[in-house]
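Work Package 3 (structural annotation) set out to generate three-dimensional models for the target panel prioritized at the project kickoff. During this period the team completed the workflow that converts sequence records into discrete structure tokens, so that structures can be stored uniformly alongside our sequence database. As a representative example, we reproduce one entry of 619 residues exactly as it appears in the project archive.
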Amino acid sequence: MQGMAAVSLRPRLALAAALALSLLLPACSLVKPEEPQPPSAQERAQRLAVAGNHAQAAEAYADLAAQSPADRDNYELLSAEQWVLANNVEQAKQAFAAVSPQARTTMPASRALVAAEIALAERDGATAIHELDTIAVPTSPQLAQSYWWLRGKAAFLTGHPVEGTRAFVERERYIADAQALRASREELLTLLRDAAQRRTSLKPPPKTDAVIAGWLALGPIAADMARNPTHAAAALADWKRAFPNHPGGDLVLAGPPGPVAPPGPGAAAVPAQNAAAAPAPIFHEQIALLLPLSGRSESVGAAVRDGFIAAYLQQDPATRPLLKIYDTTADSVAGAYRHAVDDGAAFVVGPLTKEDVAAVVPVRAAATPELALNFLGDSVNTGTEFYQFALLPEDEARGVARRLVADGKLRGVALIAQGELGTRVQKAFVDEFTQHGGTLVDGGRFDAARADFSDVIKQVLQVHGVKGEPSTHRGDVDFIFLEGPPAAARLILPQLKFNFAGDIPVYATSDTFEPNPSANSDLDGMFFADMPWLVSTDPSVDQIRDSVRAAWPARTARLDRLYAFGFDAYHLVPLIKSNALGPSQDVAGMTGLLSLDDHHRVRRELEWVQVRSGIPQPL
């Protein structure tokens, strides 16, 4: 759980931890040096906790609890806290259950704080607040910090950002270290941004303190800045005028400096990009956009172009780069690339198809950075300053595999549409799933043009019936992985129910879904991940979609993902050029949470949803 303490929250044991660490310091002596003494059991537990070996520290504290009846409650609480840090909530609850009822009166603050930590680890904000309500605000600065941090996190979790913001502001009274203070503010900004993206109201009540009102006003701007920085610039300028001396001003003026001191009661630092609200870099130089704008790929290329231009038009005309667009179909792709460089392009975006990207590599100018809109094989030597961005179904299949493992679903079957795409998706899924310990026990391929899929469903799920008894299916699977077009998916889900397999969770790639207000009720219950452009409830996403609709009213919904692809491609140019994107530096895009891997490939993390009443609902 993010932000938990690496050592005890309790004053007495915190002091003991400090004393134990002091014993580890080398001593100077003018007499014969003493033989080094082995660390005590308590020192060993504290060392494990400080080193981040939380599960081992939890076990060490449990051993101390068994060996020290007089201090058992103290050690059980320490053990529970370390289990929370080790992301093992069940063990934490077991350790906490071993604490005696007398702890409510003998050490009420310690007990309540650990109980709140466990509740937050289970995302139960209401219980965390209930536990904190049983005690007064601790007088110790360290414990007071923990109290207000837990209360703030719990308030945001229960949908009360005003109370959460008040708690974080109150917490600052107990923070003396400048880096820790900045980390706390970054965490608050992240929570406010996330609340704005979930459409939680951030309207301050009447007579709200100016500091709290300023934080609440900054949340929607931070959300907008993450996905659409040029649109947010005016709102940010207004905010700075309205709150000129606000403590959040340093964050939005300078941006995050990198990992800083821990934000929670005293543990892991918040990644800098999580609180990013500084204006994004702007690229001023000439950009060349290479796309197929005639021939059989014209509609695809035009959709990417229109999304790219929509992002371009949102930038202040005074700072826009010169944009030149080249048709890779009218000319050879190599010829279009040479013309772009000869015309003075300082950055090339495109081409689009895998074949065209491969054709550019041998002729490209190494000094001109390029963002290709497809992925090449790992063995291709692309040279320097060459970046790749793509909407690959294989990457989505790998994401489904990771999600299944995270959900504890390690055995399943697959229903995959026939064809080359299905083969690629199935291979990517199986490779990723088995690598993480999963097993695909069976699979079937289907013709997506058909209307009846009962045969493949019955075969893969071993549907059978006994006369006089309800029909049933195999019992050794946790899920069904589905890949196919939306029309087929809308038929398969009801047919699974008809064939007595509607109780098995269905996980799918985004290919199975397209917005349709009247047809998608047949997909109810299906889990899938898709780009924010299609499934996010973030108001900043709505604003961008509306702007594209206004700019290109004749666009087709079938190509929506490509408009988003073009929109993100434009915003990636300054991020790449300024080294503001990397494996640990991500940005919220319209096609997903974007990062850059060590091979200069842009990777996407999608948003997981479940279809309910025909509408994708965030998980």
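The CA atoms of residues 443 and 460 lie 6 Å apart.
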